[in-house]
Amino acid sequence: MRPSGRQIDQMRSVTIELDATRHAEGSCMIKCGDTHVLCTATVDERVPPFLKNSGLGWVTAEYGMLPRATHTRMRREAKNGQSGRTQEIQRLIGRSLRAGVDRVALGERQIVVDCDVIQADGGTRCASITGGWVALKLAVNKLMKAGEISSDPLTDPVAAISCGIYAGQEVLDLDYPEDSDAGVDGNFIMNGSKLVEVQMSAEGSTFTRAQMDKLLDLAEKGIGELNAIQMDAVS
Fold first, then answer.
1. 131 is in an annotated binding site
2. Which Pfam families does this entry report, sorted A to Z (predicted)?
3. Among 71, 120, 129, 162, whose Cα sits 20 to 30 Å from the Cα of 11?
4. According to the annotation, is 124 in a ligand binding site?
């Protein structure tokens, strides 16, 4: 039995609220159970120096957690420097979102996706990628409506989900009690039906090829459900 009482292939409830902030070109609040992340997308007509005059666009991301997003207060990283974990996560978000972007169609501009964790209960990087794509899509829609770009540079939606082995059982969408006690923990990022990245590690026990296949099957199911929620939100 999972601590939450969910079935092994059951995700937490997921909601996406659009236009969560007033000024960003695209924004949403994604809630995956008790994990809540504010995602905003900002259009910048400049690109990084290495892309100047290339005709290619760029998508990047920043990630952070509020001091009381977790059980105990954390110091603000702006005052103390970003941790290695934060840097790794925001690079993951950026490259995951870029996997679903036609950078020629985007044109020579940059979109910055900010993911700020309001409340954490496991899976913050996955929620950030899933919500970040929605914010990115809303910003792209504004560019298209304004005639700044002629075709949609976004291909299939990008989403992410965690899977792991908890109490000897393969389960979908780990919350914090499961994540902190999982024998195996994995994050799966997909662009539609195609894999973008898989992060898996043994956390006290090893796993077999058959178990990995079961986790991948669970991830495909979960991401299919997330894609449906994303498309419903932006349609």
1. no
2. RNase_PH, RNase_PH_C
3. 71
4. yes
